[in-house]
Structure formats: structure tokens, C-alpha cells
Amino acid sequence: MRRIPLLGIMLMLASLGLAQTTPHKLRPEHDLNNYGVVETIPGMDKVVPRQVTWKTVSGTALLMDVYAPPATKGAAPAVVFVNGVGMWPGGTPLRTWGQYTSWPRLIAASGMVAVTFDARGEEANAEDVRDVFAYVRDHARDLGIDATRVAAWACSANVRSTLAVLMAPEAPPVVAAVLYYGSADVPSFRRDLPVQFVRAGRDRPQMNELNDRMTAAALAANAPWTLVNVPQGHHAFDVLDDTDESRQAIRGTVAYLRDRLFPAPAPTKAKSEALEALSHFMPGEWAEAEDAYTRWLGKHPDDADALVFLANAQIEMKKPEPAAANLKKAIALDPGIGEAWAMLGRIEADKKNYAEAVPQLQRAISLQPEDAEAHFQLGKIQLAQKEVPAAVASLERAVELSPGNGWAWNSLAFAYMAAKQPEKAAASFEKVLPFAPTNPGLLYNTACAYSLAGNKDKAIELLDRAVANGFKDKGGMTADPDLGGVRSDPRFTEILKRIG
Asked: What is the pTM for the complete model shown?
């Protein structure tokens, strides 16, 4: 093969017009970096950034742009726009992009200092992100920043580095964060850092799958995250989508930051101890509620309602004796509190002290005819005492008033079985199954009801499910008269073989 000298190759390329080809430059209208945030407010045009060198690495200066609010006196809160990617391919500093020059002006015109900065990429990036927050803290006075009121903002690929730093044990002193359409694997979520996450509804499906997984984990950890969905928003909607929806989301972010960076006004009225107690009662914080109502009753011993709330919390904490004592005090103060009679009746019913429980529950129903729990408790007692028609009536009323009470439906099913009404029993058991679809005992009982009702196929199906979920009473299945209608079925025999 004939060897062509290197110079000859270069001359050949030159003759083809390739040797001096200049790199292609994207037309400005197609360059996302030329576009700014779609929300504008008065004063943005008056914001001029101040540039400082915040760090020097191997002789290379890393620059920072500081956007101060116009005509602001004294130190102001700040928002740091995190550079989690470093220098973008092509060498254009992230802080010069349209997104990172317009958002800071919007923030500054809204009364907060905005900071953008250069950073290195890859493994050096985390160090630079941590260092920039330290720089803002240490030079806050020179930058016109209140170091106790600093927030972070990050979007897209920058979210990963931001969360790696902010969720770390030695996190910078940031009081809030805003994250736009980006995600990260977060081992644990801080409970002391408010975060607003803004989701672009029309982002790439795989991106939103990651975003949704992360936010679901944050909520499961009960982290203080506020989720904002922009249904028609694309990735980078804040610069791409000039719509009312986008602008509303951006305004919401500015409001979120202001709410957390500007001190709230001092309370104008004294804290209500009763309201504090109720705040523990409503979410079921029973120990805290017991303590709060005990303290309240120390100052207001004749408050019958507080006694009832206290007793309710104690019942939930399995403290029936002090609960009963408090309920009796409440009734002595006000015999018309139906709820007190109902709870007292429930306590006596749990002790199988039916002679006292029945009149107490009847008194509760006379005072509050729509008390579903009282009807339920009374029906359970009547069923235990084999007063079947009365039990059916009470339990039917209970589920009518509270259709979501699975325990009441279960008791009603047994009442229907006792009343020889297997069709109704099966239908009632079906109301319970959504609450415990794999409970072997419930599946077995439902199968018995269907067998008695003559629905052989349904009974076999439920028996099969009961055994699959752990039902093991082979002797009971072979002797139970309720299953007489299916015992001759070959499928029944096959199910029995699966029980060890």
C-alpha cells in the first residue's frame, strides 16, 4: 500500500474544504441558554450583579455574581442558585445562562439577595458546593447577606449535587430549599429542612418516575416537603413555557422563599392550651393528648368536655380504669353527654359486664341516636347474649350510620349467620374483605356463608384462598356443618390435600 505523508493528507483535506472548518455555533433562537425566566416583575431591570472571586484553585479564579435587591438597607436574606454540574461542555459558565441571570434578578427584585457561582465539575463539585455556602456564611456582611437566612435553589441535573450536600450530616446552614424537575437517590431525609419540589408534568416519563419515587420517599419519611405539580409543564418550563401555569408556579416559589426567609410577625394572642390539647387529640397522639388534657383539667376541673377527651385518649392507650373514672366525673357534671355514656358502655362491654353496659349504651343512643359506635357496641352485646333479632337490628343501624366500619360488618355477618340468613351473611363478610383480603379466618368464614347460601363455586374459591393464606384447621374443615354443601365436591378434596 502506498504511504501518503502527513503533510499530503492535510493538503488533501484542505482541497476538500475540511481542514479549516470552524466549530458549528448554535443559532441563538435554538439555544436554551439565551432564554430567561418567563415571570417578570417591576425592578428586575434595575438589578446589576456585583462580581467577586470567591475561590481560586490552581491559579484559576472561580467567580460569583451577587444580585442585591434595589435600595435595600442592611443585610437581606439570600438564595444561592446551586451549580451542581460545574462548567458546561463548551466552556460557558452556568452563571451566565439566561436562566441563571434572570431568576436572580427576579429574586432580587422580590427583596432577597441572589447568588450564582462558578464551580468545578465531577468529583470536585461537592467540595465547591459546600465551600460556596461556607463562603456566603463567612463573608455575609460584605455581601449584604443575613447569614441566618439563606436558602438554596436548584434545578434539573443540579438537584443531585444539591441534595447530596444539603441532606448530609454536616450540611450547610440552609433554612429552606427549592428543587425544580430533578432527582437524586437520598439515603435519608432531614426533618428540619423545608423543601419545595416542583414537578414538570410533561417531563420525560423516566425522569418523572425518578422524581416521583424520591418525593414519595420524602413524604413516607414525613420530611417537610411541599410538592407542586405543573401538569402542562415541560422540563425547564420556567424558561420554555410562557404560560399562566408556569408563571403561577414561579410566583409560588418566590412566595415560598419569602415565607421562610422573612421573619413571621409575633403572635398577637396567647397560645390556647385547649387548642394544643386538641391538636394532639385529632391525629391520635394519645400520650401527648392525655398529658395536655390532664394539665388543662388541673386548671379547669369542672370541664366535662375535657374529661371526655381525656377518657377517650386513655381508652385508646388501653387504660380503661382511669378512663371510666373520668367519664363518670363528666357524667356527674353533665348527664347529657351521650358520648360519655357510649364510651363508658364500651368499657363495661369489654369487661363483659353486660348488665351495666346495656343501659349505658341505650342512654347514649337516646341522647345521640346517630352514634354508630354505640349501636355497634350494643349489637355485639346482644349477639353475645343470643338476642339475635335485636343484634341484627342494632348492627344494621351501625353499618347504616358508618358504612366504613369493618368490625361492625363482621359482627353483622355473624348475626345474620345466627339468624339463618346466609346470603346476607356472605354479603356482609364481603364488606369486610377489603380491610383484610388475606386473612385466612375471614376467608374461611365467608366461604361457610356462601356454602350455606348454596353458592358452591364461590365457597370453593374462598376456601382455596383461605388455605393459600395459611388456614390449617383440616379437622375443622372436614367436620364443619356449614361446609356440608361443598364437602362432596372433588375440588374440596384437593384443597384438603394442601393442608399439612
From this structure: 0.71
